[in-house]
Design a protein that fits this description.
- 21% of the residues lie in helices and 28% in strands.
- By secondary structure, the chain is α+β, with helices and mostly antiparallel strands.
- Strand 5 and strand 6 form a beta hairpin.
């Protein structure tokens, strides 16, 4: 069954849905061109997550993005809420609300469309590629 993730480019600020047949840590490493990711929670929940109370919105980044001198991702930096930059592309997924559970979950097409609408409302600087 296919599912979607949303990738946001640090360079172009392009927000694009990607349809995947399989969602795994390895798949996300390949999308981010890295061997190790860092998982962070988005502090605000988009409205569509009310339908999935056991899930939270997360983003994964290259854990060594700063060491690699990757460009700053403005959207990721805004999500981080500390003023510290986030480097490189990021991929949005859903994670379990229980932090001990490391499962990753993709979005349905309807959820990915709702997430893109929410991102457009939050971040006017993003460019969008629609499904």
């Amino acid at each position: 069954m296919s599912q979607f993730v949303i990738r946001i480019s640090a360079v172009s600020q392009m927000c694009e849905p990607l349809e995947l047949q399989e969602l795994s840590e390895q798949t996300l490493c390949e999308l981010l061109d890295t061997d190790v990711t860092e998982r962070l929670r988005v502090p605000e929940a988009p409205p569509f997550l009310q339908d999935a109370p056991d899930r939270v919105l997360c983003y994964l980044i290259d854990a060594r993005g700063g060491e690699k001198s990757l460009p700053t991702n403005l959207c990721g930096t805004c999500f981080y809420h500390t003023g510290c930059p986030v480097y490189g592309d990021l991929v949005l997924v859903m994670c379990s609300r229980n932090e001990a559970d490391t499962s990753l979950f993709g979005f349905t097409k309807a959820q990915s469309e709702a997430l893109i609408r929410w991102l457009a409302e939050q971040f006017s600087f993003l460019q969008f590629q629609h499904i």
